[in-house]
Write a structure and sequence with these properties.
- The complex is a heterotetramer of chains A (100), B (705), C (505) and D (174).
- With 100 residues, chain A is mostly helical.
- Chain A has helices at 4-24, 28-53, 57-87, and one strand spanning 2-3.
- Chain A has a single domain (4-93), classed as Helix Hairpins (Orthogonal Bundle).
- Chain A is 78% helix and 2% strand.
- In chain A, helix 1 (4-24) packs antiparallel against helix 2 (28-53).
- Chain C has a two-stranded antiparallel sheet with strand order 1-2.
- The N and C termini of chain C lie far apart (45 Å).
- The chains are: A mainly alpha (100), B mainly alpha (705), C mainly alpha (505), D mainly alpha (174).
- Chains in contact: A-B, A-D, B-C, B-D.
């Protein structure tokens, strides 16, 4: 028997690590991976609560999140490839043409 | 009596053929005419017209067998709206069969004549493809005319009435791109338009007469209307007077009476067979038929009758004077026709319905004869003109110039001495002239005499007007004979003129025989009142007057005198080339007036046409477009709206008030954003950082709350 | 599904199917689009015949009803209610016929943006048919306004040089009138216990009038509000100013439909709504309407004569012809009203034919100035004969359709109790002369006289088979109505009788 | 300290370690591999939480498909270290600070504020039967049918989007 709080705490830690990755890494690919990590962290919380309250809804949400993540990765990677083709690197800091 | 009772005792069931025979003819020629030879086209058209004549004969025969019974032959339903219940019904009675016989008989002869005439005409005018079209129109005319005379209601009569107007329009404008001298011009089509529109003015009268008839008599069907007439006459005599006078306007339009006669002389722009058939023998007499048909109504209002007679008599004299001053062979005949129609209108106006119809018939014979002969003369001159041009000047270049020179084959001043070159035409022309002038025993004498006799008994003024007109008639016909056929040729064309082919002369001879003998229809001796007797079963109350030596002697004397005077002026010393008319000097301004048709056309142009055109242009340009369209709509409404919106609301209220207020906010936002934009460095990571900062702060807030 | 298979629903909305199909055709495949549109229009025509076959012409009441509760808000009951009676069946047939003919006429005339054109055209057909069939004022108003939109684009996109101006004017002018009608409709609906259903209104209104809940003044105002909207559409003098602009600038097919059907919506409105809904006001207003009609007849005819542009002449002639229709309607007797309804059809046929023919020659010559024409008969004989028929039909030559209508109208107006004076009809009869003046002028300047510029400058071809086929139905009806109008009058008679018997004359 | 807790702690250490590994790898390939390991660890958590279906989805979709996709793209673009830039000098320290605060806050909120005392039961035999999977599917296709369908459309859109992005590029290069 493990307290659900542990799972939640783990989820929070993983989420923070993901957030840190998004903020600090300049490689677009790794930024993406970090995002995936954050999604995973959220999923973990979902499933843990689903177990706690004995309902399937949490699992179903996790399932949807996985589906959306797949879609997101498909588009995201396509964009990365595009960006690479036009700039010949994957530095996220190079893509700042929207600056004010 | 209705059809079912008489079906077995006659040919009434053939009545629809009156209309369908020409219809078949015109459809065949209309669709396939261009693939058929001229002879076939002419034969089909003549056959169609001939069938109509045959049917008319059979119908007349049946009517005679049935002692003049009126028979209605229903054909199809027509307009059934509210109280207006009208059918396509043919009416076969003595009056209508008389008209059918005249129209289809003369019509058929003219069809045959036209085969020869048009053969040459289309060649002189360089459009042979138009040959079949002519016969289509001619058949259409016979068709419309048959509807006119066989209709059982005013409305059906009106269908034919307007139908013949259409044919008249189409045929006057047959050479629509030319004028009388065969030069490119709007003149012929203008004449066609004039004819139609002038008749339409009369038609409005007819229409209003029909409206009045319907609302007062309750029906447009002849029998029903006539039955109601006497009782209405007692309640509201004014209505009947109005009906008759409005109808007179219609008659004036169609039968070329004052004041609407002006279209008929111009109508001579049509090919000569058309002038003969439509503008002399048949269509123009429709008005007389209408009045004769409406005899039961006219008999109720003597004052209106007097007005009708007066109009007729005035027209007779007025037109006769103009005819004296004309040089064109067809124009003389045209004015003569107007004048003779005046005689007929005067006759039916003064209650002499039979006399009017009698003159209508004889006039159809001799005037058709005269016109056709005139056509023969004109073609003879044309032929002479062409042969002369070809023979005398063999060189091509010269020939062209000769052709290009304006030559009027209808001008009597270009003729003279034709009795030698065109003997047949000459003799039939003389017969026609004597008939028209009213010389015993030609048909014209008997019919005209009857009119004079009738009027002399009741209306002396009318009698004297007509007598004077008769004098002029004989005079201008004499003048024409001397000018055209006697003396020496006044042009090379006349010198080389040639006689027409038999296809043209044979109908002339037949018509000449009819003109000579036509009087036998109704001789003023007891036992010979055939026409009176015949028509009495349709028109009640007609009586035949005994022969009156005084009236007959007077008119004959005047006619002979007129012919003698014309011989003194034109026959004794034949006109020379380029010589002015010998009447010009003694008559002075009066002859100028005759020459110029008393300036009536100019008067109408100044009083009616010009002002209407100016009014229309004024309404269209100034009122409707400049004022209503441009000024009111575009300037006032649109401009006003623009003024309100753009100047007042937009510039002052909106821009300086509301806009300015809100623009200040905009300016503030602009200033703010100009500073804030520095935060937008474009680095995604920074934005994410900001987002995270937000998350952290919100969470922190939640925790500390 | 039962809803869809009702004849009237089908005849109204069938063109939408064509729109749907065309929407999926590549815009480059112009012929496929044209054929689809034509087949749709022909099918609609057939459906209208089918509906007509089910129509009982001895029955004066509304028939073939398609009635469903549509919008229910609070106490309001708005119906989807289509029905037809003797007053409208002919106009429905005219609409479907002219739509098919117009599409055929636009075959070669419209080359740009064929897809959009055909879509707008079929949409227009939906609107027009709906106007003639709707029996709920709300539904009617929707159809009525809906017709504006496709017509606006047809004029505005495929029109002549001043098309934008004309389209805008057409739109605003008609819209302005409709607004008043909308107000009147709402007022009427509120007064009549929340209904827009015309038969229900007809049942309830007499009581409202009798009890004074709608005062005579209010009735008159309602009449005027409706009349203004319809009069603009007709157009009655002096509200005709949009017409010459719209007609001259519209493409041929647009002109045909505009003259043939859209104008009839105005006269039909008077017939269907003004007369039965406001009987007392109608009788009061009859002499005034007759006066306006008479002025319109004479004014339109005079102004026509002075035009230099062929299409403009015909456009103004509509003012004159529709004056006859209005005169007949407000004669308020059987002769006048049946004549007027028939004349609506006649005007659609003859003026439609005139616009078609002018369009056909314009395709070749690209000019509409009279001064450029002359002597066309020789170059284009079939065309000339067609034009001759159309011109004389329009002029009211007996034996052709125009006469039957004009004569019964004038006859009715002459003895009308409502107008109460023969002078209006008398003066209107002068319009017969003036019509001859301007129409013969048209015919003469185009076909007679010496060869004009168009002949010397162009090699003109006579009508081709497609154009002849386009004209044939019109010519057939021109003769049919002229020679044997009884079937047409028979269709009208019971409904007209019912309409008039309800009037307190 | 029961055995479940020990398993949990070990696995959480693995998860955190691999996450940090990903965070600190210079090389993208290593980062990807660390992440894959992390996903596997999370999948085991799912199993522990009685969600075998999600666990399998996690393995196949994340660890399988998505990571392969990542690796594929990395290989496609080539592994290259990025030159250090001085564009955002204050970014990294700020990021670290904020992340730490976030972790602290989140943990605090979830643990101290929510104060859930519930325990997560370890999976027993009943949970691993087909029954739960069936219930899940029934729920997915009844209560959540609409979102499910929407998800399918989303995937379709993503697919088309990805194709369009790369397709247009092809045209441009021509």
């Amino acid at each position: 028997m493990v307290s659900v709080n542990y799972y939640v705490a783990l989820s929070a830690i993983l989420f923070s690590i993901g957030a840190l990755g998004v903020l600090s890494r300049r490689n677009t690919l790794i930024v993406f991976m970090s995002i995936e990590l954050m999604l995973n962290a959220a999923n973990l919380a979902f499933v843990a609560y689903a177990r706690t309250y004995d309902t399937f809804s949490g699992q179903i949400f996790a399932f949807f999140v996985i589906a959306i993540a797949a879609a997101e990765v498909a588009i995201g990677l396509a964009l990365v490839v595009e960006i690479y083709k036009s700039r010949n690197n994957v530095n996220i800091d190079d893509v700042n043409s929207l600056h004010g | 009596m209705h059809l079912s009772e008489t079906m077995n005792s006659g040919f009434y069931y053939l009545a629809p053929l009156l209309v369908f025979a020409p219809l078949v003819g015109l459809l065949i020629n209309g669709f396939f005419g261009k693939y058929l030879s001229e002879k076939v086209v002419g034969a089909i058209a003549s056959l169609a017209s001939g069938t109509t004549f045959l049917v008319a004969v059979l119908l007349a025969h049946s009517t005679a067998l049935n002692h003049g019974q009126v028979v209605q032959v229903p054909f199809a339903a027509w307009i059934h709206a509210g109280g207006l219940q009208l059918d396509w019904t043919f009416r076969v009675d003595t009056l209508s069969t008389t008209m059918m016989l005249v129209v289809s008989g003369v019509g058929t002869l003219i069809h045959i004549y036209a085969i020869g005439y048009m053969h040459e005409d289309v060649r002189f005018k360089h459009d042979e493809a138009r040959f079949s079209r002519f016969f289509v129109f001619l058949n259409l005319f016979i068709l419309s005319m048959m509807i006119l005379v066989s209709g059982d209601s005013y409305l059906m009569l009106f269908v034919g009435w307007e139908g013949v107007g259409l044919c008249s329009f189409l045929l006057i404008g047959f050479w629509y791109e030319l004028d009388l001298l065969s030069l490119p011009s709007w003149s012929n089509s203008n004449a066609a338009k004039k004819a139609f529109i002038t008749s339409r003015i009369g038609d409005v009268g007819f229409l209003i007469a029909m409206f009045l008839t319907f609302w007062h008599f309750g029906s447009l069907q002849f029998d029903a209307a006539f039955q109601a007439a006497p009782s209405v006459a007692q309640v509201s005599p004014g209505a009947i007077t109005a009906i008759t006078l409005f109808m007179l306007l219609g008659v004036a339009g169609k039968s070329a009476q004052i004041p609407l006669y002006v279209w008929l002389p111009d109508a001579m722009a049509g090919p000569t067979p058309v002038s003969a058939l439509i503008h002399a023998a048949t269509m123009v007499t429709a008005g007389i038929y209408l009045i004769a048909r409406s005899a039961p109504v006219y008999s109720l209002v003597p004052q209106a009758q007097y007005i009708v007679a007066l109009v007729g008599a005035a027209t007779a004299l007025f037109a006769a004077t103009i005819a004296v001053g004309q040089y064109d062979i067809k124009k003389v005949l045209a004015y003569s026709t107007i004048s003779q129609l005046g005689f007929m209108v005067a006759a039916v106006g003064s209650g002499a319905f039979v006399a009017g119809m009698f003159h209508l018939i004889t006039h159809a014979f001799f005037k058709a004869l005269l016109f056709l002969s005139a056509g023969s003369v004109i073609l003879g001159i044309e032929r002479g003109h062409h042969t002369h041009a070809h023979h005398a000047e063999p060189k091509g270049k010269k020939k062209k110039e000769e052709h290009a020179e304006v030559f009027d084959p209808g001008d009597m001043r270009n003729m003279g001495g034709l009795r030698k070159t065109m003997p047949t035409t000459f003799w039939v022309y003389v017969v026609g002239t004597l008939a028209l002038a009213g010389i015993v025993p030609f048909s014209g004498f008997w019919s005209k005499d009857e009119i004079l006799l009738e009027t002399s008994l009741h209306y002396p003024l009318i009698y004297w007007l007509l007598t004077a007109a008769a004098f002029f008639t004989a005079f201008y016909m004499g003048r024409q004979i001397w000018l055209v056929f006697f003396g020496e040729p006044r042009s090379d064309a006349a010198k080389h003129s040639q006689e027409s082919p038999p296809v043209m002369t044979i109908p002339l001879i037949v018509l000449a025989a009819l003109s000579l003998l036509g009087g036998a229809l109704n001789l003023p001796f007891s036992g010979f009142h055939n026409l009176t007797h015949w028509l009495s079963s349709t028109i009640s109350g007609v009586e035949s007057l005994p022969f009156n030596w005084g009236v007959a002697g007077m008119s004959t004397l005047l006619a002979v005198l007129a012919l003698v005077v014309s011989w003194f002026l034109y026959g004794r010393n034949p006109l020379k080339e380029k010589q002015i008319d010998p009447l010009k000097k003694p008559l002075g301004w009066a002859f100028t007036g005759m020459e110029n048709k008393w300036f009536v056309d100019e008067l109408y142009r100044a009083v009616v046409i010009g002002p209407y055109e100016r009014l229309a242009a004024f309404l269209a340009d100034a009122v409707d477009w400049k004022f209503w369209h441009d000024f009111v709509h575009d300037t006032l409404i649109v401009g006003g709206f623009n003024g309100l919106t753009k100047t007042l609301l937009d510039r002052n209220v909106d821009q300086r008030g509301i806009d300015a207020f809100f623009n200040s906010w905009g300016a503030f936002a602009e200033w703010l954003s100009a500073n804030l934009r520095k935060a937008q460095n474009g680095f995604i990571r920074t934005y994410a950082l900001a987002t995270l900062l937000g998350v952290v702060l919100i969470l922190g807030y939640l925790i500390l709350k | 599904m039962e809803f869809l298979l009702q004849p009237l629903t089908l005849v109204t909305f069938f063109p939408l199917l064509g729109v749907f199909v065309i929407a999926f055709i590549n815009a480059e495949k112009k012929d496929a689009i044209r054929w689809t549109a034509l087949i749709t229009a022909l099918a609609t025509l057939l459906i209208s015949f089918w509906a007509f076959a089910q129509f009982d012409k001895t029955n004066p009441n509304l028939q073939l009803e398609a009635k469903y509760a549509w919008i229910r808000v609070a106490d309001w009951n708005i119906y989807y209610y289509l029905a037809v009676d003797g007053l409208s069946i002919l106009l429905v047939l005219l609409t479907t016929l002219l739509s098919a003919i117009s599409i055929l006429s636009a075959w070669s005339a419209v080359q740009e943006r064929v897809k959009e054109f055909m879509i707008f055209f079929l949409l227009l057909e939906v609107g027009m048919t709906g106007v003639f069939l709707a029996q709920d004022l709300f539904l009617f108003y929707i159809f009525w306004e809906f017709t504006l939109v496709p017509m606006y684009f047809i004029i505005g996109i495929w029109g002549g040089p001043r098309r934008i101006y004309s389209a805008l004017k057409f739109f605003l002018y008609t819209m302005a009138g409709s607004i008043l009608m909308l107000l009147a409709i709402i007022y009427l609906g509120v007064q009549a216990q929340n209904t827009f259903n015309v038969p229900e209104l007809l049942a309830r209104l007499p009581q409202l009038y009798a009890s004074g809940q709608i005062s005579p003044t209010a009735q008159m105002l309602l009449f005027v509000a409706f009349a203004l909207s319809f009069a603009i559409k007709v157009p009655m003098w002096p509200l005709h100013s949009w017409l010459p602009d719209a007609h001259v600038e519209a493409p041929t097919a647009g002109s045909v439909i505009l003259a043939g059907v859209l104008l009839k919506m105005g006269t039909y409105g008077f017939l269907r709504f003004n007369i039965p809904l406001f009987p007392n006001a109608t009788i009061q207003a009859a002499p005034w309407m007759a006066l306006l009609a008479t002025i319109g007849i004479l004014y339109g005819a005079a102004v026509s004569y002075a035009q230099a542009d062929i299409k403009k002449l015909v456009a103004y002639s509509s003012v004159s012809h529709l004056g006859f229709v209005m005169l007949g309607l407000f004669a308020l007797n059987a002769e006048g009203v049946s004549g007027a309804i028939l004349q609506m059809v006649n005007h659609g046929l003859s003026t439609g034919a005139l616009f078609l023919l002018i369009g056909m020659v314009y395709e070749q010559t690209h000019t509409r100035q009279f001064s450029d024409y002359g002597g066309l008969w020789k170059a284009m004989p079939i065309f000339a004969v067609m034009m001759l028929i159309a011109v004389f039909s329009s002029m009211g030559l007996p034996g052709l359709n125009g006469f039957v209508g004009e004569f019964t109208i004038l006859l009715g107006a002459f003895g009308s109790k409502a107008i109460a004076s023969p002078w209006y009809a008398g003066f209107s009869t002068l319009g017969v002369i003036l019509a001859a003046v301007y129409l013969l002028y048209l015919f003469q300047k185009m076909f007679l006289g010496p060869d004009g510029k168009v002949i010397t400058e162009h090699k003109l071809k006579d009508l081709n088979w497609r154009e002849i086929v386009t004209m044939i139905p019109l010519v057939v009806f021109i003769f049919w109505i002229g020679l044997y109008p009884k079937p047409f009058f028979d269709i009208l008679a019971p409904a007209v009788e019912k309409l008039l018997s309800a009037l307190p004359l | 300290m029961n055995s479940e807790l020990i398993v949990f702690l070990v696995l959480s250490l693995v998860a955190i370690a691999t996450a940090l590994g990903m965070l600190f790898s210079r090389n993208a390939v290593y980062a990807a591999l660390f992440l894959a390991l992390n996903f596997v660890a999370v999948a085991i958590f799912y199993l522990l939480l009685g969600a075998p279906f999600v666990a399998m989805a996690q393995i196949t979709v994340y660890a399988g498909a998505i990571m392969v996709l990542f690796l594929f793209v990395i290989m496609l673009l080539g592994v290259k270290d990025l030159e250090p830039t001085r564009a955002l000098p204050w970014q990294k320290p700020l990021a670290i600070a904020l992340s730490v605060i976030l972790a602290a806050e989140a943990t605090y909120v979830l643990l101290a504020k929510a104060r859930t005392t519930m325990m997560v039961a370890s999976p027993d035999a009943s949970l691993n039967t087909m029954e739960s999977l069936r219930n899940l599917s029934v729920m997915l296709f009844s209560d959540y049918l609409f979102p499910f369908e929407v998800t399918s459309i989303l995937l379709l859109v993503a697919m088309i989007g990805a194709i369009v992005l790369s397709h247009r590029n092809k045209k441009e290069t021509k």
